[in-house]
Amino acid sequence: MAETTPVFPNHIAIIMDGNGRWATKRGMSRLDGHLAGFNTIHDIVRYLGEIEQVKYATFYAFSTENWNRPEAEIKSIFNILNESIAHEAAELHENNVRILWLGRAEGLPPKLVQNINDAVSLTSRNSGMTLALALNYGGRQEITDTLKRIVAEGVPAELIDEKLIAKYLYTADMPDVDLLIRTADELRISNFLLWQLAYAEFYFTPELWPDFNRADMDKAIRAYRERKRRFGGL
Ligand code: IPE
Ligand code: IPE
Ligand code: MG
């Protein structure tokens, strides 16, 4: 494939980092930081909905490694999600947004699992933007689950190729990521979408997630549009 100048990213994935630092800087609790972070998700999702060319957005809300945090913080993250999801889903449904969940149910509060599944089924027939929530998500766990399912279904080795693997991932219905954004000045992917990021463009910003706004999103998209995507070609 020849060098291409990308138009708009079709799929944007975001590692929302810096909620804790944002709160600490203000003498607030980490819980307040997560609350502020969820308000940012609300606004950025609406904004991406307005940018019609962006068809897929994935938000990293809780990693499988985040179980290493104190129980009280984990609970507060789940509470915020649990309390907002039904209301958010209803509003997104009105805007024709389809919600997907990437991650494992194992370990999550059953009520939260039920609420997310309800949001997914409520919006499953929508044809607008796809919003994927990576919650209790780990890239290596996803690949592990994928292999287990392929083996469990008895798929013959000669039928296994990249296309088939992609169909068994949590992201079966989604294209690869075009643009990965990570906030809060951390330069790593922290076990996020290992397969799907194979050819993504990376954009790192020092902005802490609760401060990330529409203008920052524009800046990230502008940076993406200036990249040259070669996919191994010239
Ligand atoms: C990101 O913010 C949110 C989650 C990982 C749930 P952090 O909570 O990691 O914020 P910092 O990195 O401590 O500032
Ligand atoms: C990555 O952020 C996970 C999420 C944003 C949900 P972390 O703050 O957990 O990542 P590390 O620990 O700094 O790599
Ligand atoms: Mg962090």
Helix and strand content put the structural class at alpha/beta
Using only C-alpha atoms, the radius of gyration works out to 18 Å
Fraction of residues in helices? 40-55%
Beta-strand residue fraction: 5-15%
H and E string: EHHEHEHEHHEEH
The helix count comes to 7
Bound molecules: 3-methylbut-3-enyl trihydrogen diphosphate, magnesium ion
CA(first)-CA(last) distance: 8 Å
Sheet with the most strands: spatial strand order = 3-4-2-1-5-6
Secondary structure: number of strands: 6
What does this entry look like structurally?
The protein is α/β, with parallel strands linked by helices. Helix content is 42%, strand content 15%. The protein contains seven helices and six strands. A six-stranded parallel sheet has the order 3-4-2-1-5-6, with helices on both faces. Helix 1 (19-25) crosses helix 2 (30-50) and helix 3 (71-94) runs parallel beside helix 4 (110-123). Bound molecules: 3-methylbut-3-enyl trihydrogen diphosphate (2 copies) and magnesium ion (MG). One 3-methylbut-3-enyl trihydrogen diphosphate (IPE) binds at residues 16-21, 62, 66, 77, 184.
